[in-house]
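Two records follow; treat each independently.
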Amino acid sequence: MPKVFTVDVSKCNGCYNCQLACKDEHVDNDWTPYAKPQPEIGQFWVKLRENVGGTIPKVKIHYIAQLCNHCKNAACVAACGYGAYYRREDGFVILDPGKCVGCRRCQSACPYGAIYYNEELNICQKCTGCAHLLDNGYKLPRCVEACPTDALGFGEESELGDFIVGSTVRLPETGCRPRVYYRNIPGRFIAGTVYDPVEKEIVEGAKVRATNGGKTYFQVTDEFGDFWFTDLAAGKYDVVIEAKGFEYRTFTAVDATADVNLGDIPLERPAEASGC
């Protein structure tokens, strides 16, 4: 039965154990016919990508593990003209180092940047799913085994259906049908701090709404005057801040294609009504 990888981004703490374990397993180790030794530098068959959003002090960080997707419609397989690629019954796409001539067509074809070129050996290389271990009785690839928070998972596709339903894959528009499934990738955020510039105090309990198209999201500033709209879809939002005793404060078309820190936001009091 086909096997798949799963990645729960909310559980990843950025320890890099997966990346280190992959290096430990493949650097200086020749697992022919599965793979030749991985170079010490320049190749990351599992790569942890750090994503930093916002600006100080409104910053959030998350990590996403990236590896070969062992795609059902693998572009690398189609691009190779030398029969170096083959698909196993368990779904792994393997690059036979004995047949690779280093033409790098597969590297150009892969939309995920998962294939590397070894100049010394004149071959391309990539994640094997630790097929050499699985074929010798091991249950898990090294990266999954090394993950202390269970952010990485691995198993039969049929047994991981609960995770796969509602998950996402990288670049689904390519049509490659990748077999690494992700959940809980954070959306964009809009955040800020509301304060009274006259009293030089934060404003707690201010009502904040963010509107995009027909959807409106609501927040209330906390005891630090902060508000956070999280897990937003990328797009432009109109943000309105309302607090008793203050004028409305409006931000139009806030561009949340990236995370946004609106910074310290002063609220103005209404002008005194003139007497008769």
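The next record belongs to a different protein.
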Amino acid sequence: MELTSEQVDIKKAAREFAEGEFRERAKEFDEKEEFDFSIWKKACEYGFVGTFIKEEYGGHGLGYLEHSLISEEFWRVDPGCGQAILSCTFGSEMVQAFGTEEQKKKYLPPLVRGEAIISFGITEPDAGSDVISIKTRAEKRKDKYIINGSKMFITNGCFANYMLILCLTNPDEKDPHRRHSVFLVEVPTSGFEAIKIHGKLGIRASNTAELALNSVEVPEKNLIGTEGRGFYQLMDFFNKTRNHVAAQGVGLAQGALEMAIAHIKKRKAFGGYLSQFQGLQFQIAEMATRIEAARSLYWRAAYSVDKGRPDPTLISMAKWYAGETAVYVANQALQLHGGYGYISDYDIQRFYRDAKIVEIYEGSKEVEKVIIANELLKRVF
């Protein structure tokens, strides 16, 4: 599979933007656990945000592959900054796929213009990968729903203007997969509280919060999709967003590899440059090969989504393997830096910390393996 000339241009432009906007301030954002959202607004102006949103809703009408290509290039320069920007549309995939025409026209255009941020409250303190066990409840009262519960590890929880919330609405339904629904909450609103989580291992430029929802009122018209179909809508959502996470892992790994190569080409030991030692050359070769394999997987997975034939097996393979590749390559790259990699003056330390999240969020690597195995076991070869 080869990229089109337009896709190649998108990758190049995204890389140039990231180099110009992230490089000098990434360390500052990591240390302060904050981000300058004027950079997000500039990214919106340059057309890097909401590429997959259809033109009739203010977007660029491109595919999920293009969004993933941008994700790769942003994370190649700095994962924290890349996440802080591109996560601002996290949830729009759900609105575009299942929202009413009125909801799409109201909520999607501001995301592309840099006027609003959307977030998705899925995970809870006792329900992460096991989403059907969430306890946040939405009870219908006349023409509105009342939401009570809590969410954990919510990206942009403190900054979102729109918050999608996965809720339990049909607790007595025999099929546990038909008990949940998704609602859009406009924030701030009474009963909604977001508490910033400090001290994360990585992607510190990106905001993460714990949510408390105490009798939050949502009008019936803010139900996204169909009541009781929230789980199935969520699986469709993950088929799109897990490709983006795979691209994040590839971008991080590529950036770490480039740092490692630059370092061993200028450092000397035992009478020569480190790059001259065959053992280290073998390490570089293996790192690069894993990255290319992970990149090919996410390209194919994203292509299947854009063609309207999402392949959950391929998507899960891409997400799992890209996460593992990010962790592996970052670890090897730091090792090649020796003691220099252990101090904060070198970017590789930050990449090493950032890498682990790719194996955790939007479906842990264990969950991805279960999906792969279950899908394969259904098939007749």
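Discussion point: Residues 123 and 130 are 9 Å apart (CA to CA). How would you locate this feature using only the token line?
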